[in-house]
Amino acid sequence: MGVVHGQEMVLNIGPQHPSTHGVLRLQVKTDGEIISEIKPFIGYLHRCFEKHCENVTYEQVIPFTDRCDYLASMANNFGYVVAMEELMEIKVPERVEYIRVIMAELQRIASHLLALGTFGLDVGAFTPFLYMFRDRERILDMFEMTCGARLLYNYMWVGGLSHDLPIGFVESAFRFLDYFEPKIEEYNNILTYNKIFIERTADVGVMPADVAISYGVSGPNLRGSGVKWDIRKDEPYSIYDRFDFDVPVGIGEKGNLGDCWDRFNVRLTEMGESIKILRQALTQIPKNGDVHQTIPKKIRPPKGSIYKRTETPRGDLGFYIISDGSPIPNRLKMRSPAFTALSVLDEIGRGWMLSDVIAILGSLDIVLGEIDR
Amino acid sequence: MDLLGFIIILVKVLVVFAATMLTVLVMIYLERRVSAFMQGRLGPNRVGPQGLLQPIADGIKFMMKEDIVPAGADKPIFILAPAILLIPALMTFAVIPFGSDITLFGRQIPLQVADVNVGILYVLALTSIGVYGIVLAGWSSNSKYSLLGGLRSSAQLISYELAMGLAVVSIILLSGSLKLNDIVADQQGYLFSWNVFKQPLAFIIFLVAVYAETNRLPFDLSEAEQELVGGYHTEYSSIKFAMFFMAEYANMITAAALTVTLFFGGWDFPLVDESSLGILGTVLSVCSFILKMGFFLFLFIWVRWTFPRFRYDQLMKLGWKVMLPLALFNIFITAGYLTVRALV
Amino acid sequence: MPLSLLFYFAALIAVGSAILVVLNRNAVYSAIFLVLCFFSLAMIYLLLEAYFLAVLEIFIYAGAIMVLFLFVVMLLNLGREKALPHFMKFQRALSLMLVILFFFGVSLIMVVGSGELHQPTIKFSSGSVYALGEALFTKFLLPFEVASLLLLVALIGTVYLAKRKI
What is the interface pTM, i.e. ipTM, of the complex? Predict the structure, then answer.
């Protein structure tokens, strides 16, 4: 019997589209609603950051890292300063390490909240999005309390921090954790275990572990495929080896391993693990210490290069820095987790329907600022 | 037809039309306000007390906006489409009885614009016309998103019309009439004589189908903004867009009124015989109708801001593979029960 | 008589829109005019007090069948300017002959069998649904069942044609 084939239609999604999470253009070939090919076009947010970095001093690079993954600036700062400190062999005070971990984990929660909220929005659930924004707001308030900025912090400096924690921060952080912990249950009720949400995400956009690894996907997306890989655990940097926490992985609870639901659930569970780390860090943090103590007067790393990766909310963020001994980096390259996550979209999104592609894109949690840089 | 009768009908038409349009305005306000409360926001509260004049401000804004007809659009159909959608939406309310009979000027006046013999079919027929508005809007816009939205919604409306119609059939079997008045009269008396208690399955099917018919979440695939930007009304602006907007709410109002009429005793206030109370009974019946309708309108908002959206094929699957067999099963059971009862 | 005026009004629209269905070069417009034609037919039914038929005319023809037609026309995307090619040279002559034949046939019935046409065998009006139902399930049971069988066969055929794997 002859197979009925419709005409293929080329549909441009973006760059100005409600759910491309920034200025991304997807050129999809559709047969009716079935997608046969997805071609992402990037570069709409390209701001030549890596080239910029070759023309400014090492401390001036930090604001650029802020603006790459603008939803997790702290984590980006963290990655850069950890790499720089290793290159310059600086040992920062205990208190600084603790504050950095606290900030990074708060940022992880904030970033995941936004990722989960917008993912809910992509499949049509509006209210969870605003609930998550409500809670993210409190984290941003705490950041504002600390360094005055709410989105782009420029907080972590090479060898220290821009400000010490303000008075009352630890208490307010504890208050937030007490408030936030039960909220995860609320999200589960309204979104994670909603029948329609499961229908929409389970078994959709399955990314098997080998595909994920061969594309270089990292972070929650990789863990959603069942690979237990977290740099905080496997290649501990800073003081992450001191904390007791789990690395949640997808187990294919609602469908095949590595589907959108798994990726969603990994992020949600990870917030709980971040709360664990935060509680430990907030109790162990040394009461005093000068956060400016080890900041070098002049940042002039020795000749050489370093590649250091850290675990941001989106995955392995690697900084490759080549130093020629001058105060200006010779070359600075970022290995962006969102970029690799986007590259896998065509592989796992083919054959699904238009609505699924939007859901898959949402589940990959890309940030265009980091992809284009 | 005498002059007084003509005037009475004219007044009824005007009252029902004005009430529908007013409810549309109130619904637009409530949708934003209630959703805001559900999401921990404030919602519109600047225009007038508590933001009550917001819909009027919206209306003025809609009229002032530039009316854009995209190049390459099929102009006559592009202009016609919103009207095709809005007019049936406003016409449907004509057959719905919204209160018990009232005696004025020495004559009994039924509180219903037209007591059509085949009232329920009239409603179904008009809802099936509305789909033209969506399909034509999607096609004439000459945009891919619009076309996809139009196709989605027409397929959706056709499939859910069936389930809805079959759910209604079981009600018709019970009341033995296509007249909405008879269906309401059939549910008079105590609380459990309402059809929702006799036909719970039909009620659930009908309710779900109604959400699909009115293009509301979780079935608002035709205008899924995350996928299709605006769906069939992506290219519309100004007053034409407002007409789509109004049609959606008018459809919701009719759907709520129909749900009340078919399953919740219409204007019936339980345990009270409205006709014996005179004018007071009429007021009571109208109030009870409005209250019940208000609940279902609220339910529309509530559901919209709670659930995610279905996928196109899941929606179809639900319609054809779950709702339709269930509705048929329900008819089978109902007819069997009625036959057995007639025999015994 | 205002009612007969209404009838002429409806009839005029019916005929006019039917002609436009044929004359229009854009298939979507043709479909819309066909819907309009159905509406005016429904109006004529209403004037005959056949409410049930009138509603069914809208419900089934305008509401369901024509939507599918429109669907197909839109999907095939027959160009707005493109006229359909003439398949056969003698098409026009053939259609003209058929029209004349049909016209004479109808006229013949009207002339010869006048009087009978104005007497409907089933009294529509108040109990029309009952009357129709009873006629369908007693007198015309066999044709009714045969029609449903025919529809079923068509349905299976469609599924077989459209489904990629069964």
Answer: 0.76
